[in-house]
Specification:
This protein is α/β, with parallel strands linked by helices. The chain is built from ten helices and five strands; from the N terminus they run H-H-E-E-E-H-H-H-E-H-E-H-H-H-H. The two termini are 19 Å apart.
């Protein structure tokens, strides 16, 4: 979609029964960048989609887990399948395992996304190849609740090579990074399992960040953003 089309796209108001919940989320306080990494709370996110086209494909499921005080907070998870009336193509279902019945029985998209917002608050978000997660969530949030996600994002696909250069994995995928550290996902391409595996990788990287003197949320965000600008400037965008 061109910038002109985005400029003139009509504003979507949230459904009336979601107005109070949307306003409560908007009024939450942001996170101070001075919070020490050892005390900070992050939310690790993964989504499953019907494909990789952020303009046409659909968000199918969301998985998220909390990482706080250098621990994955067991039990503090969010998982939701979004209701879709028309199932996506069979080859995609074979990847993510969310079949027609599961899609038809999912939560209404506005309820699924509102629950996600209430789980994450204004905490920094973490993902591996975060661009797809961010784009799909932003698009559906605008379409269903008339809002955008302004939380800070940390992309581990970009941050990991900076903190662990000796791995020599500048363009590696999640599986390669998990294998490098001896980690594994219980099941791959399931949003919740991928979020938990990414959370374990994030813990390893947080300890590397602390060893490099990155002691606060702000310093980690600066390091991640600086490397993202460098990578984008070199023409490698990651997918």
């Amino acid at each position: 979609m061109s910038w002109i089309a985005r400029l003139f796209r009509p504003h979507v108001e949230p459904p009336s029964d979601f107005t109070d919940r949307v306003m409560a989320w908007k009024n939450l306080s942001g996170v101070s960048e001075n919070v020490p990494l050892g005390q900070a709370r992050f939310v690790v996110v993964d989504v499953e989609t019907s494909g990789l086209d952020t303009r046409r494909d659909h968000l199918l499921s969301i998985g998220a887990c909390a990482v706080e005080a250098l621990r994955v907070r067991t039990g503090e998870n969010y998982e939701s399948i979004l209701r879709r009336e028309e199932a996506n193509q069979r080859e995609n279902i074979l990847i993510h395992g969310i079949g027609p019945q599961a899609q038809a029985a999912g939560q209404p998209p506005e309820e699924s996304l509102m629950g996600f917002l209430e789980f994450i608050g204004k905490q920094p978000l973490v993902a591996f190849h975060a661009g797809l997660d961010q784009a799909m969530l932003d698009r559906d949030l605008r379409a269903t609740l008339g809002m955008r996600l302004h939380n800070a994002w940390i992309d581990l696909a970009l941050l990991a090579p900076v903190l662990v250069p000796e791995a020599r994995l500048p363009q590696a995928g999640l599986d390669e990074w998990l294998a490098y550290f001896g980690l594994r996902a219980h099941v791959r391409h399931r949003a919740m399992d991928d979020a938990l595996a990414t959370g374990e990788l994030f813990l390893v990287l947080l300890k590397r960040a602390l060893a490099r003197g990155l002691n606060t949320v702000g310093s980690l965000l600066v390091a991640a953003e600086a490397h993202q600008r460098k990578v984008l400037g070199s023409g490698f965008g990651g997918a």
